[in-house]
Design the sequence.
DNA sequence: AGTCTATAGTGGTATAGACCAGGTATGACC
DNA sequence: GGTCATACCTGGTCTATACCACTATAGACT
């Protein structure tokens, strides 16, 4: 397994993946010291700056850590890819559950001031409203109400969102890729409508979530309000300093 | 406002802060194009590689975004610093609330297998247990039970954690800095003990949180189980792809 | 034995130069 | 007017080299 200078894949990416493979295969263990940057540079015939580009990426990802004057070391654990910014469908797919939806509402409305503020658009601008009951293996899990700026995704409601994934359509049809999100979660008791839709017997606890999702350019794609069944949903987050 | 080559502050940090100041002062607006890398390099008398180091940091932080062949642009919004990885005391301080605690339990125990697994230490290894009722402006907000590997922080319980911040002591006395954490949040109904401590009248919703916190080397510092009053606590998270 | 001191190695910072692929504008040509 | 080619600009990748501050070690000196 070596580095190919003629490959279209950048050298620093090749080195990065080579190192990750070595760690996964157990050739490098947690807290093992890597060869020095100068040594890696010589061994693979690439410049030290290019080696550093690979190493710094891995440090940023938490795979390696450095100690100036000492060396570069393998971290204690390898994190999985971050799954934080996926939609409901992708999350269920990852858990091997069958995701489906029942459309409760799908219309275009002029933005109420509160929603316009969240979406950072002028008041009364066109907003796509999509309210769905979310099911995992045919059992209700959540009520999700999404608001999207109409100008970013005209004709969005042509799609059948009882089957299709909103995030998949946004990505494939409109080139809108979520890059970051601010999420607020709180616990509450289910109200009558929520209890009925989620098939809960009051009193029952639910998770209320709000989320504002943005593109790499930090333009708001969507504002979502969700209500999850407390007993069927846990919310994972991976935080970094 | 210029760049000082004799300063002990690295040039790329100086340039980064200079650009952030320009954006904050409104001299650069969202989606404005920055001068090209070659132009910045010439204007401030530093090499292009150093300019790139500053720009790439800002791209990673979401302040700028690049388009190959076009240029580098200012993002739509500037995010605040990430507050995700702070303890209860720091969070309350930021909200201008007075944080205090009532110690419910503070001992060293041999690790139960479940806790040992979370802390990634051998079963029956020494574990510091710290269970506190957390108050904001003298009102109960949460019950927090923290488990820490004793070998990382011997004599931790010498401190008075009804006043001191656990995170502050870990940082200042033991050099343990949280770098990442995995958090799980769910909603539930308060049980009798929780309702009594949190001064709730059943039925009441609470947020249950588990958290595993790690150092930059990915060594586990602590495992925490918390129960928050649903009506007095919201959980914020900033997610990135 | 204990302490100081070169010395060599490490990651961190910085320079100057080069080539590439993709975007943009200009102007020649039909 | 529309289309195409070209020249130029951009960020992305990569090399070779240099100096700094910090760390460990081996040897000289007390």
Sequence:
């Amino acid at each position: 397994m070596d580095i190919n200078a003629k490959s279209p894949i950048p050298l620093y990416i090749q080195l990065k993946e080579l190192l990750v493979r070595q760690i996964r295969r157990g050739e490098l263990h947690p807290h093992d010291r890597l060869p020095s940057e100068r040594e890696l540079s010589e061994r693979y015939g690439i410049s030290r700056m290019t080696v550093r580009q690979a190493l710094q990426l891995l440090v940023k990802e938490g795979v390696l850590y450095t100690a100036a004057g000492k060396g570069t070391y393998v971290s204690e654990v390898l994190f999985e890819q971050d799954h934080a910014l996926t939609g409901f469908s992708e999350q269920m797919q990852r858990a091997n559950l069958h995701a489906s939806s029942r459309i409760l509402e799908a219309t275009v409305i002029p933005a109420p001031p509160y929603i316009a503020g969240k979406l950072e658009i002028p008041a009364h601008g066109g907003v796509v409203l999509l309210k769905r009951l979310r099911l995992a293996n045919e059992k209700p899990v959540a009520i999700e109400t999404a608001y999207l700026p109409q100008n970013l995704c005209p004709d969005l409601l042509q799609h059948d969102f009882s089957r299709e994934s909103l995030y998949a359509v946004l990505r494939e049809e409109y080139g809108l890729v979520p890059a970051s999100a601010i999420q607020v979660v709180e616990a509450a008791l289910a109200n009558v409508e929520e209890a009925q839709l989620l098939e809960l017997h009051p009193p029952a606890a639910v998770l209320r979530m709000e989320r504002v999702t943005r593109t790499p350019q930090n333009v708001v794609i969507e504002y979502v309000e969700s209500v999850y069944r407390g007993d069927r949903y846990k919310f994972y987050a991976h935080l970094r300093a």
About this structure: The mean pLDDT of chain A is 88. The radius of gyration of chain A is 23 Å. Strands of chain A lie at 64-67, 71-74, 99-110, 126-136, 139-149, 180-189, 205-214, 220-229, 235-240. Chain A touches chain B through 51 residues (CB under 8 Å).
